[in-house]
Design brief:
Rossmann fold; binds adenosine monophosphate; alpha/beta
Length: 221
């Protein structure tokens, strides 16, 4: 199954995408994660992307789309994937259609995680990320067992540089500007499922799994 996760920063896309990918046994493709790996690996792409990411603005479409095209050329995406963080605007949605068309792939479902602003701010300002395996924790909502250490791999937890209050506000502005056109694009394509996502991660995940199952069991024309 080919699934896109849409939603504001802090909607829980990363957490849900990881859980869904384990549940459905599909690769998780996160453009934010791939970009961060490039920044920490100091690659050419990472050098170009770093300043945009630190400011909370979008990395130029062409760079991210080329990066994603390379990811789609890997064989593990053949049976499906969970795409998280792309598309961020209508140009990227159209570029994605082209990339997929060239590879004879069609998107099955687009989950839109609907989240309210106070919940977003609370989630992002308390978010901690494992430097080693990328799993997200939260200072109060999902604290690690040992302070500063990942429960799963023992890696060190850090706060993302773009999870500071000023940058969070900018990321939300960028998001609001672009989201309406994306929503109507996928609504018109009949692929959009709105999923309330203010509740804790386990409840939201159950909703997503149910929708994926219903889709899987539904007759295809
Ligand atoms: P995320 O981990 O999805 O919150 O992304 C972190 C940052 O990476 C964003 O604020 C952008 O600067 C950049 N980024 C991730 N995905 C994209 C994308 N599809 N287009 C442009 N920039 C992106």
């Amino acid at each position: 199954m080919k699934i896109i996760l849409l939603g504001p920063p802090g909607a829980g896309k990363g957490t849900q995408a990881k859980a869904l990918s384990e549940n459905l046994n599909l690769p998780h493709i996160s453009t934010g994660d791939i970009l961060r790996q490039n920044v920490s690996g100091d690659t050419e792409l990472g050098k170009n992307a770093k300043a945009y990411m630190e400011q909370g603005t979008l990395v130029p479409d062409a760079l991210v789309t080329e990066m994603l095209a390379k990811r789609f050329d890997q064989p593990d995406i053949k049976d499906g994937f969970i795409l998280d963080g792309y598309p961020r605007n209508i140009h990227q949605a159209k570029a994605l259609d082209e990339l997929l068309k060239e590879r004879a792939i069609t998107i099955d479902l687009v989950f839109y995680l609907e989240t309210s602003e106070p919940v977003i701010i609370k989630r992002l300002s308390g978010r901690l990320v494992c430097a080693k395996c990328g799993v997200n924790f939260h200072i109060t909502n999902m604290p690690p067992k040992v302070n500063g250490i990942c429960d799963f791999c023992g890696g060190k937890l850090y706060q993302r540089t773009d999870d500071k209050e000023e940058t969070i506000k900018r990321r939300l502005e960028v998001y609001k500007k672009e989201v309406a056109s994306l929503i109507s694009y996928y609504e018109q394509a009949g692929k959009l499922k709105r999923v309330p996502a203010d509740e804790e991660a386990g409840i939201v995940l159950e909703r997503l799994i149910k929708l994926a199952q219903d889709y899987h069991d539904s007759p295809k024309v």
